[in-house]
């Protein structure tokens, strides 16, 4: 910015901060429930809500209660929900076949939500980790996570999700070439309106720990995900990945985790101007909740501040476990 402010006292910046009325007039960004995508955990059974200990306030819900939660969230102005299945360990195999079972938890939950709240957008997760006995997002051969055979499986998984009624498919696997393969397959199967929200810049992060508890993947994972998820030291690479995924047919892109990566969000938005989302991941959620529960921070203020900062960094929206709480705090 080359513009120089007038010298003091002509310029007194505190004039614009003197009251809530004035502050609201000059506020540069706004946070609303329509900015939020709510990730939820689905489990088997009926009438079950089971707390996730490492994510205070978050539960795993059976499909019937997922539909009810979706109805309530949509009534609060939250436009989209994102499904993550807690898969029975007995269904986790090396061939990951449960991932494209039309009757798997994610597909059943999608159909239940679309039946209960047809106007709510349902987003699903494309990656093999919830179904893989090795806990990885791709197939493991001789200790290596193989790319191209995994992409073929991801396409089957994505198509089964689109067939179940998903509006937005979110490939979170970080294999190379999956966006183009999915886009081509969706077009070929008559799903040309199904959107791809690419987890384009997904980092190999320590902040995913509580999520792995929530989906029951902590025990299964052998090794780490550093050969496919990004090195937290890299920024330019994120731009190359976003360019690649937009070029292959992604409609929207994501940066993940969120709070430690706001510089990446800003660079992506400024460079491409595409719909840009951040994922405020489980570890970020858990840190705020744990500090609030200890009385160390004001939980509601910290939540709203963290979400507003995503907007300021250029994000069009945020995936956050706080979605319903934030919508309530925003007066929905
Ligand atoms: N594919 C989805 C995730 O890995 C979520 C991570 C988190 O919330 O920690």
From TrEMBL:
GO biological process, one term: protoporphyrinogen IX biosynthetic process
Keywords: Heme biosynthesis, Lyase, Porphyrin biosynthesis
GO CC entries: cytosol
Enzyme Commission number(s) from the entry: 4.2.1.24
Active site residues of this protein: 202 (schiff-base intermediate with substrate), 256 (schiff-base intermediate with substrate)
GO MF term (any one): porphobilinogen synthase activity
SUPFAM superfamilies in the cross-refs: Aldolase
Listed name of the protein: Delta-aminolevulinic acid dehydratase
């Amino acid at each position: 910015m080359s513009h120089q402010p007038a010298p003091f006292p002509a310029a007194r910046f505190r004039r614009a901060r003197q009251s809530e009325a004035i502050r609201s007039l000059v506020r540069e960004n706004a946070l609303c429930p329509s900015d939020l995508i709510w990730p939820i955990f689905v489990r088997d059974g009926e009438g079950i809500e089971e707390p996730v200990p490492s994510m205070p306030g978050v539960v795993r819900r059976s499909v019937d209660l997922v539909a009810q939660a979706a109805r309530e969230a949509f009534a609060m102005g939250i436009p989209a929900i994102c499904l993550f299945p807690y898969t029975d360990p007995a269904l986790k195999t090396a061939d990951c076949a449960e991932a494209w079972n039309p009757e798997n938890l994610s597909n059943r939950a999608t159909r239940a939500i679309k039946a209960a709240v047809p106007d709510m957008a349902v987003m699903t997760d494309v990656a093999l980790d919830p179904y893989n006995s090795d806990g990885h997002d791709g197939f493991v051969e001789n200790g290596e996570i193989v790319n191209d055979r995994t992409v073929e499986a991801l396409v089957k998984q994505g198509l089964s999700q689109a067939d179940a009624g998903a509006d937005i498919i979110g490939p979170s696997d970080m294999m190379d070439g999956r966006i183009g393969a999915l886009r081509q397959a969706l077009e070929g199967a008559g799903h040309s309106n199904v959107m791809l929200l690419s987890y384009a810049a997904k980092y190999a992060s320590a902040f995913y720990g509580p999520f792995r508890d929530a989906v029951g993947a902590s025990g299964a994972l052998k090794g780490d995900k550093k050969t496919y998820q990004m090195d937290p030291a890299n920024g330019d690479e994120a731009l190359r990945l976003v360019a690649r995924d937009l070029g292959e047919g992604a409609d929207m892109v994501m940066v993940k985790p969120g709070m430690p990566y706001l510089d990446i969000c800003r660079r992506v938005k400024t460079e491409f101007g595409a719909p840009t989302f951040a994922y405020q991941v489980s570890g970020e959620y858990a840190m705020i909740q744990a500090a609030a529960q200890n009385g160390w921070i004001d939980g509601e203020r910290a939540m709203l501040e963290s979400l507003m900062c995503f907007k300021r960094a250029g994000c069009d929206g945020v995936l956050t476990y706080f979605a319903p709480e934030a919508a309530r705090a925003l007066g929905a």
